Structures are given as structure tokens and as C-alpha cells.
Amino acid sequence: MVTARAHTNIALLKYWGKKDINLILPYNDSISLTLDHFYTDTSVEFDPSLKTDEILVDQQPSAGSGAKRVKRVLNLIRKLGDSTMFASVHSTNHVPSTAGLASSASAFAALASAGAKAAGLNLSERELSILARHGSGSASRSIFGGFVQWHAGHDDQSSYAQPIQRNVDWDINLITVLVDTSQKKISSTNGMQSVVETSPFYPAWVKSAQADVKPMQTAILNRNLATLGELAEQNAMRMHATTFGAVPSFTYFQPQTLAILTAVRNMRKQGVECYSTVDAGPNVKIICASSDNELIMHKLSKIVHQDQLLVCKPGPGITYL
Ligand code: 2P0
Questions:
Q1: How far is ligand 1, taken at its centre, from the CA of residue 191, in Å?
Q2: Domains of the chain from N-terminus onward
Q3: What's the ipTM?
């Protein structure tokens, strides 16, 4: 039995739309920061006595689309290892559902890593990233710590993530502002597909997101918080603009989301270096230096409760327990 730990990540340049649904190939590159504190531990054991895969997530048997995705990854591992053995999978998420952070990235990165090792495969990090991608696109990035780029690629082998800066030796962190932690009505998978198929803004999104990649790489390597933050905020707003153009139109924003976006802009006008990003949900992540956390949280306390605020620091790549 092998147990692997993977951490969640937040995209600074978003993955938003698949050019190949079966292989999970995105239209554009994305860049993320892996976070500490929130992770998934997954144990995998291939067992000749099993008649089917046994999948437990947080002690509960997994069914539906989640189980289907797990089996898809296990089938690829079996193919690579030339094996027909079924597996038992035990996964524990240390990403509280109340944290408003996605656990699919950490879950499938941990599954790919534990599964490959349990099958006796000695895969490179790139190969693990490709394998994790087949569970969930954003999982390809959670193989690595720090700042990570997922290359969109054009086929299975060319679509993988790679570190830009594994050890983040400068002061950057995120303040997550929890607006609503209930299950969202439109999943990322469905939201991005709807936008690809119906939003006239989608081609403009792909063009601008791809154009953001080089400047974002440079901002990270130069440890330039202002440029990184401006690019991330603009990229997130453009991603959300595609949803307004979809048919039927939709948005992940809620009234409080807009209030926080405005507060961040106002703080910036007052000279505080802080920037917003928003994933496929209503919660806002504020990118800033940890030395400004206290000031920003104090200013936000006029519009949100302290228990809606959560600080996330840069985190590591895969570890085996
Ligand atoms: C991201 N998101 O880059 C973007 C930003 C949401 C908004 O990756 O369909 O759960 O499983 O490949 O990875 C969430 O999408 O989607 C996501 P699938 P996934 O982080």
C-alpha cells in the first residue's frame, strides 16, 4: 500500500475550457500557486482478491462521476503496468468543504501518485502530471509545489505541468474570503463547457489568456507582486466575462463577491498592494504580501466577518507518507 499527499492550488491564470473533453486538453496554458495547509491523503493498494475497485472518500463509498474519474485514472495505471488487478483506494480530504477551495486538484494528484507507485511504476513528475490530468485538469498542477505552469499541449503527452518556481522564497500569500461555501449550481466542468459552446467572448478569452503567460512567468521570476497581481486580477475578470456571454447567461458572482472586488480596488487606490482572483464560485482570493495581511483583514472587517477569512501560504508538491 502506498500513501501520497497532494496540496490544492489556486490558478493565477485560469484553465477555462477543454479543446478535447476525453483527454482533458485545455485551450490555453494556466499558471497556479500550490497552497500549504489544504491537502488530500490517498492510499492505494492493488489486491488480486478484489473483484472490483473499492473507492472510499472521507470514509464514504464513492459513486457517480467522482468514482468514474477515479476508475479512469486506475485504468490508465493498469494499462501502463500491464495489470488487471483491482485496487482499494482510501482518500481523506483535509480541504474542509467550508474552505471554499476545490479538492479535485489535490485529490487526483494524490491518487495518480499513490496509484502509480502502488502499481510498481516509476513515473517521472511529468508523467504523473499527465496521469493526474485525466482525473481533473487542475490536478496536473498539484504534482508540483510553488508556482506551476500547465502547458496546454496538443495531445496526451504534450499537455503537462512544470514548475516555474518550486520554492517560493519571497513574500506572497492569499487571503481567501468565503462568501458562500454551499455546493455551486454550475460545476466548473459544466460551466466551462457551456462557455466554449455558446459564449462569443470565448475566442477572445483564449487569445488574452495565452498572451498573459509570458508576462506572468516573468513577474514570478522577478518576484514582482504588482505585475503578478494585476495580470491575475485581469485574467480572472476576463474568465468571468465569458460566463455573461454564454447562452443561457450565468455568473458565479454574488453581491458580496462584487463588494469585495470593489474593496480590493479601493485599498489599492489607498496604496495597499492587493489584487483579487475568483475561481468558478463566489469566493474571492486576495493576493498580497503576508506583511499586509493584518491591515487588509482589518479593512475588510467592515464588510465581512473575521471567520470568513482564511490565510493560505505557498505549499509543497507531492510527498509520500
Ligand atoms: C483553474 N478551475 O485553473 C480553473 C479556474 C476553475 C476556474 O480548474 O473538468 O475541476 O475536472 O478538468 O480541474 C476547476 O476545474 O475541471 C478549475 P475538470 P477542474 O483552477
A1: 10
A2: 2-169 (3.30.230.10), 173-312 (3.30.70.890)
A3: 0.97
